[in-house]
Amino acid sequence: MARNAIARKTRPAILLSIFSLVLCLGHAAAQGELHFCLRAEPKTFDPLKVEDDASISIRYLTGGVLVRMNRQTQALEPELASSWKVSKDGRQITFKLRGGVQFSDGTPFSADDVAYTVQQLMDPALHSPTGDAFRSGPGNVETRIISPTQISITFPAPVAGLDRQFDQVAILSAHSSKKEMAVLGPFMIDDYKPGSTVLLKRNPNYWKTDAQGRKLPYLDSIRLDIQPNRDVEMLRFRRGEIDLINSLDGESFDKLAANSPQLVHDAGPSLDTEQMWFNEVARAPLPGYKKNWFRSAAFRRAIAEAINRDDLSRVVFHGHAQAAIGPVSPANKFWFNAKLKPQAYAPDAALKTLQAEGFRMENGTLKDKDGNAVVFSIITNAGNKSRERMATMIQEDLQKIGIHLNVVTLDFPSLIERMTQTFDYEAIMLGLTNVGLDPTDQMNVWVSSSDNHQWNPSEKAPETAWEAEIDRLMHAMASSADVKKRKEAFDRVQEIAVEQQPFIYLVNRNALSAISASVHGASPVILAPQTYWNIEQLSK
Amino acid sequence: MKPWRANIWRWLAAAVLLAIVSLSLAANWLAPAGYAKQYREAADAPPSHQHWLGTDEIGRDRFARVLYGTRISLLLAPAAALISTLMAALIGGLAGYLGGAWQRAAMAVTDLFLSLPWLFLLITVRAVMPLNVSPLFSVTVTFLLLGLLGWTSAARVLCASASSLRNSDFVRQARASGIRGVRLFWIHVLPNLKPVLFAQFWISVPAFILAEANLGILGLGVAEPMPSWGSLLKELEGLMSVGEEPWKFVPLVLLVMVVTSFQLLLSKQDEVAA
Prior knowledge:
The structure holds 2 protein chains of 2 kinds.
Chain A: H1 2-29, E1 33-38, H2 53-62, E2 67-69, E3 76-78, E4 81-86, E5 92-97, H3 111-122, H4 129-132, E6 142-147, E7 150-154, H5 162-165, E8 187-193, E9 197-202, E10 221-226, H6 230-238, E11 244-245, H7 250-259, E12 264-278, H8 288-294, H9 297-306, H10 309-316, E13 321-323, H11 347-356, E14 360-362, E15 365-367, E16 375-381, H12 385-399, E17 404-410, H13 412-422, E18 427-432, H14 443-446, H15 465-479, H16 483-500, E19 503-515
Parallel strand pairs in A: 1-10, 16-17, 16-18
Antiparallel strand pairs in A: 2-3, 4-5, 5-7, 6-7, 8-9, 9-10, 11-19, 12-18, 12-19, 13-19, 14-15
Helix pairs in contact in A: 9-11, 15-16
Chain B: H1 4-25, H2 27-30, H3 62-98, H4 100-115, H5 118-128, H6 135-149, H7 152-166, H8 169-176, H9 181-214, H10 229-233, H11 250-266, H12 269-273
Helix pairs in contact in B: 1-3, 1-11, 3-4, 3-6, 3-7, 3-9, 4-7, 7-9, 9-11
């Protein structure tokens, strides 16, 4: 009887304990759905064809890579490859792969898959943008499977930063019938409604576990709404309908911060730069005297000195930007040349520089040695409020040294046409979004023969000695496997860029984001994807 | 005897217009620092003793910008509306009055104009315009373009109105009395088109002010640092709520006041009294 009474008394407690345990286990296994917006329709789900930001986001969330750059420390970390070795000549890399890993559909992962992915990546018929980074020279890429967990890849010529390039290469299955839908990343595509939503669900075969041995990721699913309108995205975040905004402008950041300071995050200066440049194209339809101004390094340096960058950062970006120093943001810890110092705001020095070049002030107007008043226009893309405001502030800054600047806003296609086809412009202000840390990503900007050498594109031969020197240094940097030599070469490129000012760098925008209080484990950084770089660790 | 209430409304409208015009003309005296001066230490500031309507995003005094912007928009938007209304009266009114092949031809031209992709034409205009033009030149060209392109819808309305007048009894009677041609149009048809013309004119003024703001995307419109009501109204785009920064609504309030006042002042007396 006593035993029955005890049993009766303890039964509810035991049931409650079992119920709690079930709940706890359930919580550990299922921790909700993360909800945020993509700003455009993803153009492809094939990780090798990815080019646009939305597709890059999907690839990051679903693709398994051999090595991954830690977005916080900027160090390379092992993923599907437990270790790797790059040959001294920078042409060969050997990976040792993890065993027991499966794709989302249960297909086992082996060196076959890596070889298949590399062959696909380098297939000229595929035109893989990711593959472009590996195309260092003519010839074929050779893959040699040493064992099911070891593979060696040899390139025809040295590839700069070879191991880091694999951060972007999502491994495909060589044997799965699901093709690119079989993934090795933390999530897999569950549903896609064009123009509306991409639904990702947890990859049940994902190989990673946390320190306690629990399977990652913590989240059950991710719902990505396709929403190009930033105001709507902001409104939905305010209403609690979405959990995060990956990048915010300063104005929206401050508005959110005014009500909910705990939800917004300023990770500091990003890699992105805002810059202006003068038209230095010899065949441009501009008067000769203006071409002479724009092709004069002293003139460009004087303009750089006359711009108050601190004001641009403080006023236009509400303090969420830093005065730019040169082509590389200080946020790029390794490649930034720390010897370079910020350009001081010095209108008097600018005027002296100009006077030394034969310019003179007459009734508040600066004139060149032939008596031409210094008047020029700057174009920027219409609708970009921060650039329009920067241009108007520069207009007032230059007025102080007698230069009259006309601000012109144009629709983007018209601007690009003037910039790349007709060369009918005097100065342009635009931004540059830098995704990668390695300077090889900037080859297309700095090499004089490149189409993207904006101030004077597609030069048949370098038109100035300093451009020839930059060409030499960039090629040396890109073809060397010695990191120290590469760094020295690119440091010198940065110094030349600051001396010659082909681009007048204005500011580096800060990486601003917003994350709902219901999301745990977030630690925003400056590198994309800023808020969900550690997606496996996030929970709700 | 005139209804006293009608006179009061007209006097009130006249007083409002006079006050707004006087303020804008006194801009140099009321805001001596001008519309372009940037008070960068006080950017996006709320109203204060120094800046009665606060400052804009780069620290320019909003009161000064409203005064100077009023001067520009009050002069140029009605001028553009006048051009478009006169063109509509000439093309639509005459076509309706003449009828037959004239009417069909004029309406075909109007339909052609309505169907043209004006966006591309404006892009072409921007492409052929030099980049180094003064802000005043830019704004004048913009309003001129708006005036020259904005007559089509009004022309259709006026054509229909004139067409109905053509067959009305009093026009037939006038015709029977020997009045013909331009004289008949001028004395009997045009005065009866006046209400439609006024309506078209007043619809066009705010439409042109807003169109000028939107043309900025093509590089047309008022160039920085010159202000206009259109560029000032663009500030309202980012507002999350009406109560957030109510002083930014001043250009909108001014626009409504000016259009309403003009309508009250120039409408028929009996319409106002009603």
